[in-house]
Structures are given as structure tokens and as C-alpha cells.
Specification:
23% strand, 4-stranded antiparallel β-sheet, alpha+beta, Arc Repressor Mutant, subunit A, 12 strands, Jelly Rolls
Length: 235
Amino acid sequence: MTIDPDLLRPLPAFASLSARDRRRVAAAASLRTLPAEGRAFVQGEPANEVFLVLSGRLKLVRRGWARESVILRIVHPGELFDLGRGTHGHRHGTTASALRDATLAVWPAPCWQRLVQEMPPMALALVQLLEHGLADAQDRFVEIASLDVSRRIGHSVLRLIDQAGREEAGGVRIDFPITRQDLAGLTGTTLHNVSRILTRWERQGVIAGGRRTLMVRDIPALMRLANGADAGLAD
């Protein structure tokens, strides 16, 4: 089954292409569905495909030196991932798991490389996307290197709200399942630290959550916590 080329039109990687070129890109892709917790690939496997999330969300997880794993990225609808892989000898550097049921567009790497070579506007857009991804990764590195655990968690939750927040009567909910272990993997800390801090924030009315959900009830308070401007709530 192929994908509708109109799905590509609003996406940054394909927005500058002609309708004819978008049809060509769409025709080269196949659709793949993943159930929640299903894997698109596993770290260490040969990398020979490029992926676009059409619906759902995935997490890219890398095994750490110790038992804890690190979540390098949450991939949202409309985002490409595993770009730059797929050449001879490359292997996946992460495991890609669906946080909820997901639909992916998938291109064989040789076909994708040929399309990029033959469509300069797409090549330029991809360079810009890679630069943006590198800047995000650098921001996260600076957070982990320079902020205490509480502030790192605050920044991470605010980022998720910005990317996938859904307004409800009691606040803004992150619109996909996320566990405390996931937050630990995103912020480079332990499950114990995340549980301790989120439990305190729940008592203070900043957030509300369950086993796999998280809602921010007081965004200004969370912003103050993330910026270190509310010592009373942080303690």
C-alpha cells in the first residue's frame, strides 16, 4: 500500500517539492503499522530504511553503559527519523518503539538516497532538519551537564507539553503514554529520582499523573521550577 502524496505537502522535508516530485516520493514509500510497544527496529540491527511517522509517536532508546537506557528522542507525527543511516555497513544506533499505535511511511535506503540526490530542494530541507535536530541535542546535553535533576525534569515536561500538549479541564495533558521510567530515560537520571520529584510536585498541585499519564495543572509554576525561580516548590 502506498501513501497519499498530499500527506507530504505540509511537512518541511517535502514542502518545497513540486506536486509531481511529491507523487514520486510517495510512490516509493510503503506503509507499516506498529502496535503500542511494537518496534520499528532494534539497536545493532542493519540499518537499511528511512522512516516518517504519519500517526502515533515513537521513542528512540539507546542502551547505556549501565542497566539504565537513555531516550535520545521522542518522534512525533510528521517527523522523519533514522536519516543518514542505511548506507553500507551502518547499523541502528537505537531501538525505535511505538508509544502508541503508529503508522509509518518507510523508504528503502538506496531508493531514498537516489531521491535526495535527484531532488536538490529536498536535500536542502533535510540538511536544515538535521541542523535543527543537532541544535536540540546540544540543548539537551547542556541541560544534563549543567542543571540539577529537578530542573531537567521540568524542562523535559515543558518540552513535551509544547510538542504534544492537549488542553483539558484540569490542565494540559501530554497526549501519549509516558511513564516515570521514560522521563528518567529522557533526563539522564534514575526512576527513583523521577518518582520522588513528581510525587512532590503532585502534592504541591503542579502536576497530576497516573502510571502512564501526565498532566500539568500549573504551567507557570512548572516554568518557575524549570528556571530555578521557585525554591519553595523545588525543596
